[in-house]
Specification:
Blueprint lengths: L2 H17 L16 E6 L8 H10 L23 E7 L2 E7 L8 H5 L5 E3 L5 E3 L9 H5 L6 E2 L8 E2 L5 H5 L5 H5 L5 E5 H14 L19 E4 L18 H4 L1 H36 L2
Parallel strand pairs: 1-9
Antiparallel strand pairs: 1-8, 2-3, 4-5, 6-7
Helix pairs in contact: 1-9
């Protein structure tokens, strides 16, 4: 390659870099402004674990573990998508149902390379085994450490609560909500549940912490919580910002098409330019 050709390639590459303007990359947004959601009033939970058994039956899972009472050490697993945890706070025991939070802008779905995890139009975040490649990026990206991977399976799956998406699509409530005898779980549209939560706090200000967990954490979730004690005392992360996790990757996503499109021809131009210079030197040195 002659030097003038190399310089042309270099000039075109440099011009492309200078003129390129990355198109805005939109983070995932909720497909509805008012998705389905569940309000959990921990002041009403009696720790009966009926939600666990209902979840197992509705989703074809094994019977929940034989724990005699809820404890902080219990956690979800590949065979148990929801657990009731128990915390001793002062002289009281607080029991709390935990499961996937179904974020409004789920980091797990954005991080999924094959879109095996996706947020359905009505709100639940579901998993499609036919698309999963087993990369487990969803596990790394989830701020609540929810997705579980079947390490001991020859055909491993990602397991987590799917908010009974099939039941919800048929107009039914999630199985855990139907099974709760204490009415600690309330299913409905998120905006209505937020209003109900605010009403309970306003009506009984001494009974609740003046916060609705999930209203703003990581951009908001479809599981909302009320509590009589600070949330950090019952196992909730309180160090989460209100910005949805996918928005943190925006600048990186801007750079990816720019780097992948422009850097290779730039490097190729540099290589050919260097090779061309050597050729010209060799030609000039010949008698």
């Amino acid at each position: 390659m002659k030097r003038r050709d190399a310089l042309r390639v270099l000039g075109l590459s440099a011009g492309a870099v200078a003129l390129a303007r990355p198109r805005p990359v939109q983070a995932m947004t909720p497909e509805t402004d008012d998705p389905v959601a569940v309000l959990v009033d921990t002041t009403r939970c009696i720790g009966c674990r009926m939600c666990e058994f209902a979840c197992a039956e509705a989703n074809g899972l094994p019977e929940p573990d034989g724990a005699t009472e809820p404890s902080p050490d219990r956690d979800t697993s590949t065979t148990q998508w929801t657990v009731v945890k128990g915390y001793t706070v002062g002289e009281r025991t607080v029991t709390v149902k935990r499961q996937c939070m179904h974020c409004l802008q789920p980091a797990c779905a954005v991080g999924c390379l094959t879109r095996a995890l996706r947020k359905t139009p009505d709100g639940p975040v579901t998993w499609d085994g036919g698309k999963c490649m087993g990369c487990r990026y969803c596990m790394l990206s989830c701020p609540f450490d929810v997705p579980r991977f079947e390490y001991d399976s020859a055909n491993p799956r990602i397991e987590k609560c799917q908010l009974c998406s099939a039941r919800v699509a048929r107009g039914q409530r999630p199985a855990c909500v139907e099974a709760c005898p204490a009415q600690a779980l309330l299913f409905g549209r998120r905006n209505n549940l937020l209003e109900e939560a605010r009403t309970r706090i306003y009506t009984h200000p001494d009974q609740y912490v003046h916060q609705i967990y999930g209203e703003r954490e990581v951009g908001g979730t479809s599981w909302l919580y009320l509590s009589a004690v600070p949330f950090e005392q019952i196992g909730f992360r309180t160090d989460l910002a209100t910005t949805a996790y996918p928005l943190y990757t925006k600048e990186f996503l801007y750079a990816v098409p720019l780097v992948l499109t422009l850097v290779p021809p730039l490097l190729l131009g540099l290589r050919r330019g260097t090779a061309g210079a050597h050729e010209d030197e060799d030609e000039g040195g010949q008698p």
